[in-house]
Design brief:
This protein is an alpha/beta fold and about 190 residues long. About 30% of the residues lie in helices and about 20% in strands. The protein has a five-stranded parallel β-sheet, with helices on both faces. Strands 5-6 form a two-stranded antiparallel sheet. The two termini are about 15 Å apart.
Amino acid sequence: VKDQLPLTMTVYDPACGSGGMLTESQNFIEEKYPNDSRDVYLYGKEINDETYAICKSDMMIKGNNPENIKVGSTLSTDEFAASRFDFMLSNPPYGKSWASEQKHIKDGSDVIDPRFKVSLKDYWGNLEVVDATPRSSDGQLLFLMEMVNKMKDPSVSPLGSRIASVHNGSSLFTGDAGGGESNIRRFIIENDM
């Protein structure tokens, strides 16, 4: 990967907090490639007004574009709907209920936000669109699906995208077979993400 890095890179964190992981990713790239003229553009979204303000200020101080940092819920609004990123990293809140955002994601049992639907083959090999939402008491997998939705297509960008996300164990083990959590894990594994 390191030999294929583009000269212009984008990094996105859908739960950016004060922006520490974003700025550290930029520092890492600049330290590894001190003689290259690589441009790193940082993007993020934060729900908490105070940490959002800190992040935006940090972006300004360090010479990054503060307009690339958005305030609000990543789960209920898709500020970067048309964007695809080279690298994404996140430490989403563990056990965060998304019940208050459910009306933006689901209408009853129907998923209305395309970020949280996946296509999987059924028993007979027919492709079907299925629910990719976890139980409402823990939304960390929704942050992962947000990042999966923002991946570059490898046929368009040779490197594609890379994701690093910190989760507790519930992402690996919760949910029934055929349920939202199971569909998310299956989609990621079957698509070699």
